[in-house]
Amino acid sequence: MDQATIKILENLAYLVASAMFIFGLKGLTHPRTAVRGNIIGALAMLLAIVAVLAAGNIIHWGWIIAGLAIGSIAGGYLAVAVPMTGMPQMVGLLNGFGGAASFLVAGAELAFATGVAAEAAEGSAEAAGNMQMLIATAASGLIGSVTLLGSFVAAGKLAELKFTIGGKKYWMSNSIPVPGRLFTTAVVFLVAMFLCYMIVMNPTTTMWYWLLVLVAAVLGVLITLPIGGADMPVVIALLNSYSGLAACATGFVINNNVLIIAGSLVGASGLILTSIMCKAMNRSLANVIFATFGPSSDGPSADDVYEGKIKATSADEIAMLLDGVQRVVIVPGYGMAVSQAQHAVRDFANL
């Protein structure tokens, strides 16, 4: 089979995988179709991986097989071992790994382009990559590294980890103050922007890229550390969006259409989910992005929101109420899982 035919089949597989990603995401919008949507999304990813491997250009199959084996074993173990109450922090970790994969692939592509340039044109910037590739590489390094460390901090907060500094104990689930937080975060962000500029202007010096990854990692910690554990679900949703944007940027780096589409879907859906959660929690999206959580000053008070919607009752009143009803709907939430009340609710439903 000639290269032209292989390329056509590869792009066709990418198109089918992209459509499956969209249908999978659509399935996740309803509990009845969520499992099916998740399976469709997983099969789409499998199809995309098979298309990449079947297209050739594999330097050493040993590394590919080793990576697949390690990832499959780790993923299977986590899927079985992590309890349902640990799912939010597991999602946070997976977001972080997605960000890491994005900036590592972009960094490898930059190093490869730099090596080719050094051989072909004595290290000229023109041969090291076009402007699209360089800007996308900088974006992938910045967003991916922020996602990695930010997600790790968020997972630690949800897991209620603790650490000791100078004899003083800190719980990660609490809001940990950073001296001069806004100023420090702004300075680190400006340094990251400068490094992005240096990557675009001096693509043959890969040192700038890995410096950017390091500075962006510090930025990820700074924007996540001051936020309390109770607000982490919103932060996780935002970091999920970041991981999609990092993957999309990496898709532009390696000219991979399915990665661009999948990353755009994750980025957009994560941002929409973050916006919905902010409205539900009386938050501002700007507060999330700039790590200044707190109730919106112009929003309604809790009394206005819940007035007439919450009713305190007793066991006797519940018994009398249920005696005359035909259908009862119980809506479970994360709080029910954390309090280990799901078994009692199940027994109650059976009764």
Write a concise synopsis of the structure shown.
By secondary structure, this protein is mainly alpha-helical.
Task: Explain what the structure shows.
The protein is mainly alpha-helical and 351 residues long. Helix content is 72%, strand content 2%. It is built from 14 helices and 2 strands; from the N terminus they run αααααββααααααααα. Strands 1-2 form a two-stranded antiparallel ribbon. Mean pLDDT is 83; it is low at 293-298.
Name the poorly predicted regions.
Answer: 293-298
* Assembly state (oligomeric): single chain
Given helix and strand content, the structural type is: mainly alpha
Average pLDDT number: 83
What pattern of helices and strands is seen along the backbone? HHHHHEEHHHHHHHHH
In DSSP terms (H or I, runs of 4 or more residues), the helix count works out at 14
Approximate helicity band: over 70%
Total DSSP E strands: 2
- The gross shape turns out to be globular
How far is the first residue's CA from the last residue's CA? 64 Å
Write the layout of secondary structure elements.
Blueprint: H1 3-27, H2 31-54, H3 61-81, H4 87-121, H5 131-158, E1 162-165, E2 168-171, H6 181-201, H7 207-224, H8 232-254, H9 257-280, H10 285-289, H11 302-306, H12 315-323, H13 334-338, H14 342-350
Antiparallel strand pairs: 1-2
Helix pairs in contact: 1-2, 1-9, 4-5, 4-8, 5-6, 5-7, 5-8, 6-7, 8-9
List keywords for this structure.
351 residues; mainly alpha; 2% strand; globular
